[in-house]
From TrEMBL, chain A:
Protein family (similarity comment): Belongs to the sigma-70 factor family. ECF subfamily.
GO biological process, one term: response to stress
Biological source species: Terrihalobacillus insolitus
Every RNA polymerase sigma factor 70 region 4 type domain range: 112-163
One GO MF term attached to the UniProt entry: DNA binding
Residues covered by the RNA polymerase sigma-70 region domain: 8-74
Gene symbol of the encoding locus: sigX
Annotated InterPro entries: RNA_pol_sigma-70-like (IPR039425), RNA_pol_sigma-70_dom (IPR014284), RNA_pol_sigma70_ECF_CS (IPR000838), RNA_pol_sigma70_r2 (IPR007627), RNA_pol_sigma70_r4_t2 (IPR013249), RNA_pol_sigma_r2 (IPR013325), RNA_pol_sigma_r3/r4-like (IPR013324), WH-like_DNA-bd_sf (IPR036388)
Keyword Nucleotide-binding annotated: no
Protein name: RNA polymerase sigma factor
Keywords: DNA-binding, Sigma factor, Transcription, Transcription regulation
TrEMBL record, chain B:
Keywords for the protein's UniProt record, in alphabetical order: Membrane, Transmembrane, Transmembrane helix
Top-level taxon in the UniProt lineage: Bacteria
Bilayer-spanning residue ranges: 51-73
Bias (Basic and acidic residues): 111-127
Protein's UniProt name: Sigma-X negative effector
Polar residues composition-biased segments: 88-105
Organism this protein belongs to: Terrihalobacillus insolitus
Region annotation (Disordered) ranges: 83-127
Length: 182, 403
């Protein structure tokens, strides 16, 4: 089993960790969730039918682990919805985590885009992370998400549009006097 | 210029420049943790399921008994009958045997009756395990002058609006029902979240196509929910041709409506295109059709394809079978739609199929269609017969009125 684990680790670990991290934005949590992914993979490798590539199979497991996490979180939160203080919207959680070092070193614009990712829906965020951070093709993204190619394209288009609005709004808030940020 | 304008390509480029974030965990440590959790899972699984073997053994014995005993009983009946005939003493059969024989006749009658029922079920496309106790999730305009109101609740993740409707019972007006909504919505029983309308009142301003909504002094809307709230008001009042809701807040000139700012009125617009999915929190709670917004440029065919794919929200499931292939034709300037299933998808006359038909019709309604014709490999589902075109429903999720 160790040999198989090492093989997976060497081939995919960095990408899997990136995917999970950018979905949940918390290093420790990403470490816990990636363990969950390996457990599921090691337990079910014999059921892998080879209908998809090993990579898309692994990422679709990772995605399910992340979605399960969001689901558990949202059911914990759901009873908070008293009066009109519903709490934060289901999965769309405001990012209160300190910025990881790698992001903190980036310029303001990169930090903003990192933060705006949280304001997208889980579907939109999944597509953005897979397409642009992981550089998966549209077909690979569709395979991982179990969607049609056209749904990936539509969600990607909406996600970019949503980010555009969010970035412009954020820019406006940060820059109330109208001085152009370069 | 107040802010930087972004092009889509800029955003794509920024996204692809997001840095690689390093995982601080060592590979060997990770392996130790994973293998430790794997073995815990295994032992946990065994502890949890070790009752299976004795239970399985007991069930096997029970199954064998059920399988073996009836032939012996029947055999003994046959022997008794033969013995009776041979001796010509039909009436002298012992009482036990007589009673078994009459039971046997009753069983035969029951079998014939069951066969008749099966035949009847097959005629209308039911299998023996499906009972025709369907629950319709739409209100069809079948009763002349039927008056109803629409409102909405939220799914438990507060992602989507679930439209609901109530028939106006005699002795009530529509506005009275709007003001009784908090009593009529059974949040716990239905497995939904209600909008907070407890201290809110509505008055229809006659002749002005306007409703006044009075809200209490401390009543603010959390960001992210104002849109759903405005959608709710649209659901409620656009069927009455109301285009504006005037807001009056006790002690304030204007009410804070979050992203809408401090406002004293809200313009209502009919809700746009929507795909309908099925919402149910658990088996003991009712099912609802839930509306998921679609792009205004999208077509009905795209909306129906979308309804085959799961959405990432718990308790919401696709309303159309994933494997179903269909085409959508439209006539009369997009007023009439024809949906033809083009592969041999197995459709049964059951609740799942009824949910599909009603979800399709509600979706078609949101796309502006007035009638839908179905060409399906089945002639009837629930109350719908597919020989003629069906008018789209007037509202979704009719709920019982509670005093």
């Amino acid at each position: 089993m160790r040999g198989f684990f090492q093989e997976l680790y060497d081939s995919y670990h960095t990408s899997l960790y990136q995917f999970i991290f950018y979905m949940v934005k918390e290093k420790e949590l990403a470490e816990d969730l990636i363990q969950e992914v390996y457990i599921k993979v090691l337990k079910s490798y014999h059921t892998f039918k080879g209908d998809s590539s090993e990579k898309t199979w692994l990422f679709s497991i990772a995605r399910h682990v992340v979605i399960d996490y969001f689901r558990k979180q949202s059911s914990k939160k759901s009873r908070i919805m008293e009066y009109f203080d519903f709490g934060e919207k289901g999965h769309i959680m405001k990012d209160n985590q300190p910025l990881p070092e790698e992001i903190a070193l980036q310029n303001d614009e990169m930090k903003r885009i990192y933060q705006c990712l949280d304001l997208c829906t889980v579907d939109q965020k999944s597509v953005l992370v897979l397409r642009y951070i992981q550089s998966f093709s549209i077909q690979e993204t569709a395979d991982i998400l179990g969607w049609s190619v056209s749904k990936v394209k539509t969600t990607q288009h909406r996600a970019i549009k949503a980010l555009k609005v969010l970035l412009e709004e954020e820019g406006k808030e940060d820059n109330p006097n109208g001085s152009q940020r370069v | 210029m107040d802010r930087k304008e972004y092009k889509e390509e800029n955003i794509e480029s920024l996204l692809s420049q997001l840095p690689v974030v390093n995982d601080d965990m060592d590979r060997n440590d990770l392996y130790q943790k994973v293998s430790a959790r794997l073995s815990t899972n295994k032992s946990f699984a065994w502890t949890k399921f070790k009752w299976i073997i004795p239970t399985f053994a007991a069930l096997t014995v029970l199954f064998l008994l059920v399988l073996l005993i009836p032939p012996f009983v029947n055999q003994s009946n046959e022997y008794s009958k033969e013995a009776d005939m041979q001796t010509g003493e039909a009436s002298s059969a012992n009482s036990d045997t007589g009673s078994t024989a009459s039971n046997s006749t009753l069983e035969e009658e029951a079998t014939i009756e069951k066969a008749d029922q099966t035949e009847e079920s097959e005629r209308i496309g039911l299998t023996s395990d499906e009972k025709p106790d369907f629950v319709s999730h739409v209100l069809n305009q079948t009763i002349d002058g039927m008056s109803f109101i629409q409102s909405g609740v939220l799914d438990t993740n507060a992602q989507y609006l679930i439209p609901i409707s109530f028939r106006v019972p005699s002795g009530y007006t529509r506005m009275e029902l709007y003001n009784r909504l908090p009593q009529m919505i059974q949040e716990e029983e239905w497995g939904v979240y209600a909008f907070p309308l407890n201290r809110v009142s509505f008055t229809l301003n006659k002749g002005e196509e306007q409703v006044t909504m009075r809200i209490p002094e401390k009543y603010s809307l959390n960001e992210g929910y104002q849109k759903l709230y405005v959608d709710l008001l649209s659901y409620m009042f656009t069927p009455l041709k109301v285009s504006k809701v005037k807001i009056e807040q006790t002690g304030n000139e204007t009410a804070n409506f979050g992203m809408y700012g401090n406002v004293n009125e809200i313009e209502l617009e009919p809700l746009g295109k929507q795909s309908y999915f099925v919402y149910q929190v658990s088996e003991n709670k009712p099912q609802f059709l839930v509306a998921v917004p679609q792009d205004k440029e999208s077509t009905l065919e795209e909306a129906l394809q979308f309804m085959q794919v799961p959405v990432d929200t718990p308790n919401i499931s696709p309303s159309i079978q994933k494997e179903m292939l269909f085409t959508v034709e439209t006539y009369d300037q997009m007023k009439r739609a024809k949906i033809t299933v083009s592969n041999q998808t197995k459709l049964r006359n059951n609740q799942t199929s009824l949910n599909m038909i009603e979800s399709i019709m509600m979706t078609a309604k949101s796309y502006g269609y007035e009638t839908v014709t179905f060409d399906l490999p089945i002639q009837k589902i629930g109350p719908y017969e597919f020989t003629e075109e069906l008018p789209v429903p007037v509202a979704a999720n009719p709920m019982p009125f509670t005093e």
